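Risk register update: the risk of archive-format incompatibility is retired. Evidence:
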Amino acid sequence: MSLQVLLSEKKPAIVERWFDVLLEDYPPETVRFLKEEKDRFANPVGSTFYQGIKDLYEELIREPDLRRTATLLDRIIRIRAVQGLLPSRALAFVLDLKKVIRDVLGPEAQNGKVPLEEWRQLESRIDHLALLSFDVYLDCREKIHEIKLNELKNRTYRLLERANLLVAAPEPSAEPAEQGEHMHRAETRQQADPQRQTRPGGDHTVDPEEGEG
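Archived output:
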């Protein structure tokens, strides 16, 4: 029998079992709520997890689209990335799918009833899914750090503002620039006519042949 047919037939059981594995990282009371509360508004995390698992599985058993798969992973991982889980635990659910499938399919998929090459192709897709989940996780963590950094900057600014410790930067003075331009004009005139001399105390120049007058 084709593995693809088995995966489609056993989809409800596999999705349910995969959802259970995902929830193993949470306390029993939390797991009970995430599974039993069916209102997606009252239980947005549980609803997001279950729908995400279901959509990921459907994407996996057909030819996966990279962009769509990354979007589906993001819905789950962005939640787990802020829950204090180690990266290895936050992403373990992806590779756990291999065992889930074998456990659910059981004897129907063993003892050579499914071609070995089909198993290899399925596990290769799961491996690629795991690698992609790592990229998604890093992206989520970078966004979280960026948000925290901006919050810290804003909080520090508000504290300094309340304490009247903010000092406005002085406006640059125009005098140094004007003086530099004045000296530059004098040097330019001197270079243009080397015979002209500058009298002490000013930029008025005289010709050496005329004398001091």
